[in-house]
Structures are given as C-alpha cells and as structure tokens.
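Shipment paperwork, digital attachment
Item: protein structure file
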Amino acid sequence: MPEPARLRVVAVVEETSESRSLVFEAPEGWSYRPGQFLTLRIPSDRTGSVARSYSLSSSPHVDDALQVTVKRAGYGSNWLCDNVTAGSEVDVLPPSGAFVPGSLDADVLLLAAGSGITPVMSIAKSVLAAGTGRIALIYANQHQDAVIFDAELRELVARHPERLLVVHWLESVQGLPTAPALRELARPFADRECFVCGPGGFMDTAEEALRELEIPRARTHIERFVSLKRNPFERKKRTEQIAPEETTAAGGDATVELDLDGKHHKLRWPRQQRLLDVLLDNGVAAPFSCREGACSACACRIDRGEVKMLQNSVLEQEDLDEGIILACQSLPITDEIHISYE
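Attachment content:
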C-alpha cells in the first residue's frame, strides 16, 4: 500500500461554525492534482483508529501547503474539528482520487453543496491560476452563514470577473434545490465538463438535471465518499483469498495483460484473488486508496475479457457500460483479460 506520512498541521482555519480547514506541511516528494483527496488516520477508543477521506481544498498550482476542509458530520469529522490544532501531527496517506479535470484550459461547470465545495475549490483555483478555462459554479447551502469559502470566492470573482461565475442557492431563501431549477441554471453551460460533489440527495438531484440536459456521462464527474470498513493504516497483509463460491469459473488461473507507466505486464491471475492484489504482488505500481470499491482511485478499463466485481459504491451504470472497473474488487471470468489505465 502507499506509505503513510506523519504530517504536521501548521494552521487550523475556521471556515464556518461547523467547518475547519487543516493546513499541513507538505512532505517532500508528494504531488497531487486538483480535485484529489487525502485519507487521514483518526484515533478511536473502540478500534484504535479509523480512516476517513477528505478532499484537498488547496491547489497544487497556488498553494505550497496541503489543505483539507472538514465539516462536522460524524465521529471522524467531529474529532478533527475538536482536537486538531497547529502543531498536531496526523498520519496521512498520499493524495489519491480521479475527480480531476482533463484540462485546465477547458471550460467547466461545477455543482456543489455544503462541504462538496472542497474539491471544487481546488479545481476552480487551479483553472484560474494555471489554465485559461472559464468556470460556472452553482453552490447550494442551507443559509448564508454556512457558505464555506464565501470571502475567498468573492475575491476570486473580483479578480476574474470574465472567467468565474458563482451562483449561490440558499435553502433558507429558495428551498431545497430541484432538478428543474438546477437544469435551467446549468443549461447555458451544458457543453462543458461537469463536476458534482455534495450530500447524496443533492448529487442525485444534480445528476437528474444533467441527464435532462443530455450531457454525456463521459463529461460528468461525480465524487462520492463512504465510510471505509477496513482501515488502510493497519499494517496487515492485504492480499485476501476469495471464497470459492464467490468466483465465477473453475479451472486454472486466468492471464491479465496491461500497460502502465510505459511498461507492459503479462501476469498470472489466480481466480480467488482480486486484480489489485495480483498487480501489487507482482510489483506493478497500480493506483489505489480505499480497497473497498468506494473511491475509484483504482479504476481501470477492460479492453478485452470479462470480470466480476464484488463491491461497487462509486461507479455509475454508464461507467460500467464503458468497461470501467475497480481493480480492488475484480475477479476474472474469462481466461484472458486486457486492461488499460487512463
């Protein structure tokens, strides 16, 4: 697994009464892309520790430090907000995630609600600082005082009035966002790459709005976070044999071929072993994070052959139809399989 680092907190910023930004001193050798996340180890009296993922609100093109923004929403978030101060040290896994723009020069439509602004803010700052793209941001909150990065967004609009449009939706004034309302707000920007992040209900509504605009799934990016059942900080061997009844074929091992980082690999794939474990056991530096089918960091594409996924909490049906799979959850069905990483 990627090796965690113990990062020192250099500042804690109170964004709203319910949210804090934790600013970490960046370790040497780490890099990230706008829209990615960090996974933090949080102490627990019951289990020793739990792991929680939080999006980076900093931009690799603007900020020297790493910053995640945390809104109170459960044990992990509450612990961080209540206990972490400047000088604290936190175990953190390297940046991961695929909620990233293909180009900083392309125009984008961003839809966020609540703390879903976090990865969206990283994308917006990066596009404005290092690209030429224009940005339309639709941002929903319960009320004005809950708007995270309110002052920073106003400052960005003032500096880039021709490139950044921010539309606020306040439930206290307008009620809950509806698909027809979001559809009409998004309509002028329907030709853009779209990014959606926020609570589940908001994302379902936003996805419905984008579908009604007939925006292709390939241009729609959804960021979902679920609680991790297994702790990636536990230093146990992660290769896990699958019960025979969960496999779909008998007989000998399958074969998988792939190209990654300029190297071609052809590997034996035991039918009771997940694809990611096969790759890591053979020294292939395949990307991954949660290992639970919940973050899409290990996503790859099936070019030939067929697999079975044991768990999937993040890929949409359109992704599956395009051959996207999660390496951490995939078992072979056919004897020969070819995959690719994009």
